[in-house]
Amino acid sequence: MSDPNQELKDLILALDKKLDGFDRKFETQITELKNEVRLVRIELEAKIDLSRSELEAKIDLSRSELEAKIDLSRSELEVKIAELSGKMDGYSKRLDQQEFVSRGAILALVVGVASGFIKYLFFTS
């Protein structure tokens, strides 16, 4: 019969070789997984950068469209304000003329009433 210590050593050596094989397999699989993760990360970063660029371009386009609309509205409002200002000047001139006429009419009415009253008091026979 063979030596039991030798058999144990042989078994331990065989088990050690198998464990080394598993270690190598795990290391290669881990390395492959790391490489795949790197590739996926690079692809995702590229997609994110592309999406970010597209989004920034859309935002810039929308911003420029909105600024153009705001400028157009602003110019339209300025034109309308100028028109209203001209109309208000015309109305104020008309009101000034009406006030002058109204004052003249009231003055004529007061003078007429006063002269009638004076005539009634002093020249009645």
**Number of helical segments with 4 or more residues:** 1
SSE string, helices as H and strands as E: H
C-alpha Rg (nearest Å): 52 Å
* Portion of residues within helices: over 70%
Number of E strands: 0
- The overall pLDDT, averaged over residues, is 88
- Oligomeric state: single chain
Supply the helix-strand structural class: mainly alpha
Quote the beta fraction.
Answer: under 5%
Shape: rod-shaped
Main sheet record? none
**Cα distance spanning the termini:** 177 Å
Low-confidence stretches: none
Description:
Keywords: Membrane, Transmembrane, Transmembrane helix. The protein is mostly helical and 125 residues long. It has one helix and no strands. The model has no long low-confidence stretch (mean pLDDT 88).
Note the topology.
Elements lengths: L3 H119 L3
Fill in the keyword field for this structure.
rod-shaped, 125 residues, 0% strand, mainly alpha
Short description:
95% of the residues lie in helices and 0% in strands.
